[in-house]
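Feature request disguised as a bug report, sorry. It would help if multi-protein outputs had a clear separator. Right now it looks like this:
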Amino acid sequence: MAIPKVCGIETEYGIVVRGGESNPVSASSLLINSYVNAHCRKVGWDFVDEQPGNDARGFSLDVAYPPDVETHLVNTVLTNGARYYVDHAHPEISTPECLTALDVVRFDRSAEEIIRLSMEAARDVLATGAEVIIHKNNSDGKGNSYGCHENYLLSRDTPFGRVASQITPHFVTRQVFCGAGKVGCELPGVTADDVPFQLSQRADFFEEEIGLETTLKRPIVNTRDEPHCDPQQYRRLHVIVGDANMSEVATYLKVGTTAIVLSMIEDDVLGTDLVLANPVGAIKAISHDPSLQRAVLLRSGRRATALEIQWSLLERAQKYERSHGLASVGEAVGADVLARWEQVLTGLESDRDSVAHWVDWVAKERLVNGFRNRHGLRPGDAKLRALDLQYHDMRADKCLALRVALETIVDPADVQSGITQPPETTRAYFRGRCLDKWPADIVAANWDSMVFDTGRHPLRRVPMMEPLRGTASHVASLIDESNTVAELLAKLGA
């Protein structure tokens, strides 16, 4: 049976500084340091287990190239179990490990609030009139893209080749409901007249079907083999193909449907008849066609639209629910994902406006077309691109996504508590609670271990190799009853 799909999202945010520091790396550092100084104690990231050069196809590039890990940049762990850091030239937040897609939405929303608090804190240390502005989007309009990555726990027993071939049709076509929308195109030689509007912000930037890179020659299926847990039992599928969504429902469907499809692949019930002949060409062709009518070639020789492929996946998922259940994604959440999956496909097929409150690209297209028609603008006009960007503006008073009646599915109180409190159903609970209770006694932390200073040498490293241990049911009473780190470690040892 498929194992629980522990999951999470890593979002790289676009950053601009008005009236101040123009270097995005320095600006990102200032943003994060401002938040930490104002709201929590800084605890550094432990890089000891970072191995981004390991490839799921059975080899490692670490022997040929140094790991692409920027240990000199700002990198901290938050009391909600998340990681907040500078990644290349962007601020990035990785949510804590979550057990369901609904939990991911909650902590993704909490990350947005952390960004807003960070902008406020940065304003207090910048010169008068200067401002850090953050966007939750994926493209700067100048040929550069930054990612919104997902992560899913898989059994090591599932052959990676099967995962890669069978998940690709979903990755290529799910943009019909989780694309963030984009004015124009950034492919060389393609003009705004050719593609005035498309479904996905990221589709233009994928060049390979499968590979290890994340910033160059981006692959639809990333092969990084860095499980951040017991490597004998698990692998972590690192997904780089998605857009950053402003819609809570789009994020929910993006993560929820993918977790279900991966569960079907683990249980070997999905089959290979949906495998695409040319996934790289297909992801662009589908993105460039908001009419959703363009058919792409399957390896079998037949052609199908993205909606037809999604309907096939949904029908198989419904059959899977009946035969295997949805315990791997949470029964209640899984059933709700299936119901919404069917509803969004029905709406996209018959009445697109009926899902504008769920689907980012539909909501944005309505904004763009309305503005364009009112002002008589040509496709790709700078004002339309500015409108596109403002949809993703993290300033609450400027963000257009907050004005188009997108449905919310997470209680605002849960979003606020998620800023500082970890989920209770994964090991993130242990990490977050310890950081909250004993911040001065934690030297460093990462996903699968924490380093404690008990006041005596040597330092103590506590491994956290099981994502579903260290939950509230496992350790809440131990943490509550311990007055010091030394007491906690003694009880854990016992």
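(second protein starts here, but nothing in the output says so)
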Amino acid sequence: IYEVKADEIIQVQKHPMDYSKEAEIGCDKISMNSKDGVYKYTFQNAALNSLQKQLKIGSFIIKPLLGEKAFADKAHFQKDRFDVALRGIALKNIDMNNLLDKKIFASELLINNTSAKIYRDLSKPQSGKNKIGNYPQQILKKLDIPVNISHAVLSHAFIEYKEKETMSDSTGIISFAGTTITISNITNLASAIEKNNATTVSFKTKALGTIPVKGEFKFFLNGNGGN
């Protein structure tokens, strides 16, 4: 913490960012397993700087602790297995006082490199669970932490989806390379949703590495249908 200036210590306790020129918190590594013991989550080289109003994370890894077959057998029903690596993460123009109040308000989220591999075994029965309530915008709305990020850009992304078929007992794979994903209006704030009720996801990619594809999704933030 640099250049702390206040007449009373209570001023610093209540509003530390207002009475110090700069504060920085750094962490080399945080690693933890999911409650069900299926995944390991690892953050590396994280640094939060109040003067720059920026959080940088070298990498965030979601690593499955079970192989594809073992994962499907443990789940007993159809369930996506994720193997994800995000590198070069930066959250910019953070509202530092709101962050201390456990609110994430920022102008942009940048991720320089993304790898996401997803696997599903269709030979397992379906869970029968209703997907309504578990769509991305609904999960965001359920968070206890208020979030308002103007836009995010994921560049140099590789996405692979694998399915084990029932009849052929073989695995089909489709991949998307050289992908750029832009997301706008990432929020669960009621006041922000009143102004703009949709999160828009635009993408450009190459299916199977050769076929150009571009498109857009809109996730509506109001209502309970997950539209």
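Even a blank line would do. Unrelated, but nice: The mean pLDDT is 92.
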